[in-house]
Specification:
Mean pLDDT: 96
Largest sheet: 7 strands, mixed
Strand content: 15-25%
Low-confidence stretches: none
Bound molecules: S-adenosyl-L-homocysteine, 3,4-dihydroxybenzoic acid, magnesium ion
Oligomer: single chain
Helix content: 40-55%
Distance between the termini: 42 Å
Shape: globular
Length: about 220
């Protein structure tokens, strides 16, 4: 039997193998990460492999309109927007003006500023405004902001989706802490997963993913 450290080491090697196999990054995405780090943003963007997976999901869904909750430096937004047609649109919500500024520069360098709009504010209010303004439906919604609000973001998202749309929820395994939550972030993401699983309007799965630790992406389709 391998011990936990060996298993984690092997999982990371597998992740690197997949990453190198498909050369997912390229200069523009690398530059986005370098500039985000230089600007002091936390290193909590999706992994290259997860970015690739989400790009594949967006393309497979034939999505034209995407909503992202939690922009950071725009790394995941670039992945997602790359799968959109030229007349597509991605709206990304970010509470931190500094993060939003870094993201806009990264998106611009990726040649995506024509289809990506970063809105600054608390996602709770911005989501309510999207619903009020009749700006839905979106084909894909990627939830990746404050974990404590995931259940509320799910509820708001359900007002902004149509049958066939996808909901993606990041960080829904959290190193396995969702199995027996001891802090609010783990409790809320566990609750989010349960709400997805129990909603008859949704057909979903939680996909474990390898990061610095084991994490997961919840994927659900509105039926
Ligand atoms: N999706 C990004 C990572 C997002 S990190 C990527 O993978 O590249 C989470 C982001 O959510 C942070 O930038 C944080 O400032 C933002 N955030 C946290 N609480 C928020 C809120 N209430 N409303 C909007 N954004 C929020
Ligand atoms: C954290 C947030 C994220 O969105 C993420 O992908 C990883 C970590 C965090 O707040 O620690
Ligand atoms: Mg995340």
């Amino acid at each position: 039997m391998m011990n936990t450290d060996d298993t984690m080491g092997l999982l990371k090697e597998i992740d690197v193998y997949i990453e190198e196999l498909f050369e997912p990054s390229g200069e523009v995405l690398e530059a986005a990460l370098i500039d985000s780090r230089r600007a002091g943003l936390p290193d909590i963007n999706v992994s290259p492999n997860q970015g690739r997976l989400m790009q594949l999901l967006v393309a497979t869904a034939g999505a034209r309109r995407i909503l992202e909750i939690g922009t950071l430096g725009g790394y995941s937004a670039i992945h997602l927007a790359r799968a959109l047609p030229e007349d597509g649109a991605l709206i990304s919500l970010e509470i931190d003006e500094h993060h939003a500024g870094v993201a806009r520069k990264n998106v611009d360098r990726a040649g995506l500023s024509g289809i990506v709009e970063v809105r600054v504010g608390d996602a709770h209010g911005l989501l309510a405004a999207l619903v009020e303004g009749g700006e839905g439906p979106f084909d894909v919604i990627f939830i990746d902001a404050d974990k404590e609000s995931y259940p509320e973001y799910l509820e708001a998202s359900l007002r902004l989706l149509r049958p066939g749309s996808l909901i993606l929820g990041d960080n829904t395994i959290r190193g396995g802490t969702v199995l027996d939550p001891k802090e609010e972030a783990a409790r809320s993401t566990r609750e989010f997963n349960r709400l997805v699983a129990e909603n008859p309007r949704l057909y979903g799965i939680v996909l474990p993913l390898i990061r610095e630790r084991i994490d997961g992406l919840t994927i659900a389709r509105v039926v």
